[in-house]
Amino acid sequence: MNQQVKKILVVDDYPNWRDLLQHVLEGEGYVVQVAVSHLEAITKLEKEKFDVVILDMRLVDAETYNVQGMDLLKRLKKKAPNTGAVILTGYPDLSQKEKAIGQYGADAYLSKSPEGKDNSGIDNFDIDAFSDLVASLTQD
Q1: Among 60, 123, 59, residue whose Cα is nearest residue 92
Q2: Rounded to whole angstroms, how far apart are CA atoms 85 and 73?
């Protein structure tokens, strides 16, 4: 049986997070592309189809303004509603989580803080749970 390799786009302006996520996901057998800015992510999303997109909530472009990953999420779900989407954030907020999942269709909203849950009930980043989440989003 020929199983197609799954493609993932990681969008984050912090090199350490991009590198970590790319390393983990490639180690799991995925083809991973990265985007460092809102504009680069839009370009990649227009040209290619991805199975899962990992979006940093707050992106800082060269134009010196903050562009929310939520904007990319809305664009992604409008163009490719079946693509898995995970929001990562260093600034967890329950109302943003509800908006990302309930209104815009994200599959998960994770804090970049270490394992566990923060006091608002948002899941913190756990590399094993993250890998399991991506695996569940890439199953046919």
Answers
A1: 123
A2: 7
Beta-carbon neighbour count of residue 116 at 10 Å? 10
DSSP secondary structure string for all residues of 46-70: HH---SEEEEESEEE-TTS-EEEHH
In the numeric block, the tokens 């990302």 are attached to 100
Assign 103 to helix, strand or coil. Answer: helix
Spatial CB neighbours of 52, under 8 Å, sequence gap ≥ 6 = 6, 8, 9, 83, 84, 85, 86, 134, 137, 138
Tens digit of each residue's pLDDT, the chain (140 residues): 446 889 999 999 889 999 999 999 999 999 999 999 888 999 999 999 999 999 998 887 555 455 578 889 999 999 999 999 999 988 788 888 899 999 999 999 988 876 655 556 566 778 888 999 999 999 86
The pTM of the whole model exceeds 0.90? no
> What are the boundaries of each domain within the chain?
7-137
CATH of domain 7-137: 3.40.50.2300
The token pair that represents 91 in the structure block: 């600034």
